[in-house]
Structure formats: C-alpha cells, structure tokens
Amino acid sequence: MGRGDGTEGSACHVSHSIRVPGAPGPGRKAGSHGRRLGPPPPRAGPGYAAGMKLQEFHARELLHAAGLPVPPGRVATTPDEVASAAAELLDAGHRAVVVKAQVLVGGRGKAGGVKLASTVDEARAVGAAILGMDIKGITVRKVLVAPAADIAHEFYLGAVLDRAAQRILVMGSAQGGVEIEQVAKESPEAIVRMHAHPHLGLLDWQARQIAFALGLGEHLGAAAAIAKGLVRVMVDNDADLVEVNPLAIVREPGPGGAASERLVCLDAKITLDDSALVRHPDLEARRDLGEEDPADTEARKQEINFIHLDGSIGCLVNGAGLAMTTMDLVKRAGGEPANFLDIGGGAKAEHVSAAMRLILADPKVRAILVNIFGGITRGDEVARGLVEARSQQIREVPMVVRIVGTNAAEAAGILRAASFVTATSLEEAAERAVAAVRGAEAAATSEAAR
Amino acid sequence: MSILVGSDTRLVVQGITGREGEFHSRQMLAYGTHVVAGVRPGKGGQRVIDGAVPVFDTVADAVRETGANTGIIFVPAASAPDAILEQAHAGLGLIVCITERIPALDMLRVMPVLRERGVRLIGPNCPGLTSPGTAKVGIIPGSVHRTGSVGVVSRSGTLTYEVVQALTDAGIGQSTCIGIGGDPIIGTSHLDALRLFAEDPGTDAIVLIGEIGGSAEEEAAAWAAEHLRGVPMAAFIAGRTAPEGKRMGHAGAIISGGSGTAAAKVAALEAAGIRVAETPGQIAGLLVAAGVRPD
Lengths: 450, 295
Hints:
The complex is a heterodimer. By secondary structure, chain A is an alpha+beta fold. Chain A contains 15 helices and 19 strands. In chain A, the strands form five sheets. In chain A, strands 1, 8, 9, 10, 11, 12 and 13 form a seven-stranded antiparallel sheet that branches. In chain A, strands 2-7-3-4 form a four-stranded antiparallel sheet, with helices on both faces. In chain A, strands 15-17-18-19 form a four-stranded parallel sheet, sandwiched between helices. Chain A starts with a helix and ends with a helix. Chain B is an alpha/beta fold. Helices cover 33% and strands 22% of the residues of chain B. Chain B has helices at 19-31, 59-66, 80-89, 104-117, 158-169, 190-199, 216-227, 262-271, 283-289; strands at 11-14, 35-39, 47-48, 53-56, 70-73, 94-97, 120-122, 128-131, 135-138, 147-154, 174-179, 205-211, 233-238, 275-277. A seven-stranded mixed sheet of chain B has the order 3-4-2-1-5-6-7, with helices on both faces. In chain B, strands 9-8-11-10-12-13-14 form a seven-stranded mixed sheet, sandwiched between helices. In chain B, α7 (216-227) links the parallel β12 and β13 (233-238). The mean pLDDT of chain B is 94. The interface between A and B is large, with 61 and 69 residues.
C-alpha cells in the first residue's frame, strides 16, 4: 500500500512550489506532538491483505459514490481525449490540470507518469508522453485528468483489516504523501489508530478524535465524515484496504476572488477481498486484465492458485502450505522455484494438464517437481492425471514425482510403468529436481560448445 | 488424552447431504467419531449415510433430539457465516468450519457473537482436528495418525498431514492435531491452541506449524517463552522463499509492508527457545532431542 502515492503528491507540489520544504503546517505539528490513540502497535503495521487492486480512478469513483469529497476527474485513453478533458477543467476555472498514469504498480510519479499542464496543448503533449509509456513493465493505456490542486497541507487516512485484533483499523497520519509503512517505522507515535466496531462501524466520537489528533480541528466535520466514509466504503465493497493518500487541504478560488480551503481526497487506493468478489460482480468487472500476467488470468479461470517466480524448477503441489514448503525445500537443495502452484483437491487429468500448461508456459522452467500428499485426493488418480497430462505436454522437461498418502503404492506402480522419476521423501524429491536442472544445463552447455 | 474432541464428542454435520459433507461424514463415522446428526433445511426426518445418521431441518432440532455438542460445517461460503451463527445459537460449544473463501469482513462480524456466547470456532478454511484413536472432526486422513502425547497445531492442510505422517513414521504419536485454518480471520489461534495443550494432562510435547503472514506465530512464541518452559517443542514455518506482496494460496499467507516474514517468525520462535526445523522431516528429530521418547 501507499506505493507511489507519496511521489505523486510531491511531484504536484514541487511543480507548484506551493509548500516551502520543511515549513511546518498544522498537520506536521500535530504529528510531531504525537498524540496516539490506543495501545502502541506490536509491529510496523497490521497484516495487510493484497487482494484485487482497483485503479485509482475506480477507487475515486467508489469514494465519490459514498459521498466523500473527491475532485472531478476524467479518464482518457488518447491525447485528444486528454486535451478535451483538460479543456473542460480549464474552462471551469482551474488554472492547471494534472495527468496521471493509471497503472497498478507503484512509483509512477518517479517514472514520469504524473505531469502537470496549464494549457490544452500542453495537456495533449503530456498525455501523448504518458500514454504508451512503460512503467515497470506495464504499458500505460489510461490516464486520469484532474484539476491540479493547490495544496496547503497533506495527511494520510486509511482503513485496513487488522487481523490480530479482528477489527477494521483506521489509521491517520499528519505526514501525508508518505507511505504509512515508512511513517510506522520511523515515527510510529505520529500515527493515529482507531478500531471500528464490527457491527457499529466507526463511531462519531472516534472519527472526531482522529480528526483532532491530526490537527484537523478547523475541518472537523469534513475530516470526521471522511474517516467514517472510509470504513463504510470498506464494508460496502468488501475491501481489504481503503486508503486516501494524500488527504489534502487545498486552496480553491472562492467567489469574488477570496481563496477558501477545503479538505479533499486527492488520491485513493482500494484493494478488494478476493473471497468476496462473487457478491460484487460490478467490482469484478473492473479487474484490469490488460495489466495482469496472462498466466494469472488463466490460473484464475482454472481455479488454480498460481504465482509466477523467477527460478527454473516448476512446482505442482496440492495444498498451499505444502506448496510453500516444496518451494522452500527446492531452494534449500540449491535450486530456485519457478512458481508457487496449489492445485487444490483436483486430481483429474484435465486439471493436472492445465497446471502443467501454466508451468511450462514459462520458458525458464527446466524441470518440474510434483509433490502430492494424498489424503482425500487419491494418489493413483493424480498419477493417471500426470501420465495423461504428459502425453499432451507442449515441451519435454524432466519431471520428478512424489506421491504419498492415500493409494501411494498404486500411484508408484503407474508412475514406474510410465517411467517417471520418483522420490519418496520431500528432501529427496527436491534434490532430484535440482540435479535434473543441473543435468539439463550441462547438456545445454555442451551442446553450445559443440 | 486429548483436547476439544474425543470420545464424548457428539457431532452434528451441517451440509451433510452435500457431496463433501456426505463423503467426510462417512470418513468420520468410519474413524469412530459419534456423528449423531446432520442438518439440511427441508430434509428433516430423512436418514443418510446408509441410514446411520438422522437429518434435521435446524441445528436447534438436532441438538434437542440428539444431544449434539459439537458442529462441523461443509456448506458453501455464502451461507457458512449463517451456519456458524446458527450452531452458536443452538448451544454448541465447539464449531469446526471447513468452508473456504468466506469473506474476511463476514468473519469479522461473526467473531464477537461467538465470544459473547463463549463458543470456540476452529477455522474457517481449515482441515479440522483429530484426537487419534477417539475422534476425527474434519478432513485430515485418519491413516496419518498414531495415538500418543504430542499436540500439533498448524495453519495448513496437506502440510499438516505431511508433518503428522513423519511423526507417526518416527514412532511419535499425537494427542490432538488441530488445523486452525489459513484465513486472516480465524476462530482459534496458535496461541489459543498452545493454552489448551498446556492444560491437557495428555499432551507432553507440542509441534507448532506456521506460515508467512500475520503475527500469530510470534504471539504464540512470546507466550510459550513464558508459560511452556520445559515443555518439549518444535516448529516449522512455511514460506521462507515466498515473495512479498503475494498471497500464497491461503488468504492469510502474505508478507506485506515487510511484516509477516518467515525469518521474523523463525527468529521469534528461536528466541523463545523453540527449535525450528528446516524441513518437515526434521521435526521428529528435534522433538527427540528435546526429550520426547518415540514408542
């Protein structure tokens, strides 16, 4: 969480030269006074989950729909659309716009994915520069065009699932635009914490207490409403995390030229609980497939838990804990796992085939380690699935198979007949897979030498 | 001896007419568990599992008619929170929820009700628990066990089977093996299980199996350092090679913001004087080194 937002926030004010670096504002002051609510945290932060991430513009929509103050903004996919969105905002009296790359990776500000423009032509040029830009391997296809904010002060406000306390935790910090983990590490006393009641939500007095602790007394009503709103957005959308960073006091030209100040959500981040997406089809529809590894999309379709890693030994395991353990033992044996894969209870050939396809789609994979603990899953069924899967396999790599538990003896017979390399212990299986990769590498080297 | 389940367990199965519910009810009966009732709204009055188990429309009916004291849940995620609450209100003292993919915020709302009523929940997203030789309430294959006096607590399913099988192969029997579940919000923590084992005269040693994510293992380690000095213990943590920010199969298995790493958990356990195995196969050896005598 918090990735990249700080950078963007800073990018905005540096260009505007609005804040004198180091100048104390009411926010910073409150932070340094360090009024903390509740007992000190046992660690840097609660266990944040990382479910499906929403793009910033989607997150802003959810906040806006919940009645939170979010500046206007439009999504554009071409430089011309950027120009027309900018024209609309400039005509409405805003003196500049900010064009922000919509990507789910952090550090977009640093990568040049957030830029200001004060004319329509400039906006078009900035849009042309950002659209198509590569940020950490992701091609920018959409930008958000919003009014450039004249920021007086920045804050952080977020709601997360605190698994140890089994509560929603609202955290606030007067150091906005900075990742909350960093604040937690460097000055934990600067973070305000408040648990929402599981049935009642965040209560008025709690929201007020957060607002006062952040030094937002002058914006009490707005700040309290936003704090309560974050919890409501979290509950209504089954989110793991709802974060506004920065929450900012911005100066806006008022009627007759007198400037007024307003508290707004300048950037938002929401991640959703994957387990709850079935009851939020509207949110599932916002999944950005363009930004997802095709292997992840395929794995989700097949209901296989798959995570791509950098190594050369593909792993096919039943059960998440055992799959992690298998990776750890590959590493311990001197190899590098190419993936985490939990095939679940599925033993059918088509399920095993699908898992094999996912693993072999990675050209770096030089060997596959299959580790199945047959409990309810029967070992012989998995063995038959493997034999069939291998016959449909797109390329040949050495495979080491360990099947123990229910019907392991029958499984061993099937695997022997099909001349698979087998192992009885997990350690042995990992060592054999590592040896197979080294063998394949040696063969490739001597091939190249010839 | 054992904790939570044993020969006095009288089990009601919610979702007994489903594929999973029926299959595992058969397995539990075959293991010797007293499966006294099933619940399926609209099918009250029938008998299932070859006529061995009566079905009731509500958990309250099942409890009144059969004296059930423990419940297990196999219903889908959308109705599982309601099933947990129905069992809690029917007066069951122990509820085991096998169902996976229950939204975290649903569990957040369920937990205070359970606390209020003094009900213990195991899971969700767990394999349940077995007291070898007397009762199996869950889906852990009965064949991996051996009766004995080592308590096992774990967040995983098949990894638990792996560890328990290795103990059994080494001649080390178990008092009770509990799979507490891989979700971020669960009813019984590692620490809760340690407290129960500490009070059980039938448990002489403890194996703690953890994985990345959260801080439950650290909390258990801190408590053990204070209260379990002299009790032979061994631990294993899965996910030493797991990357940050990725959910490793279990909803709760994720390193985020630098917290929840395997290294931190191993360090906390070792600081508490608990030896941490590098492989599941080493656990039996660590227990023996700590004073456990194999049969």
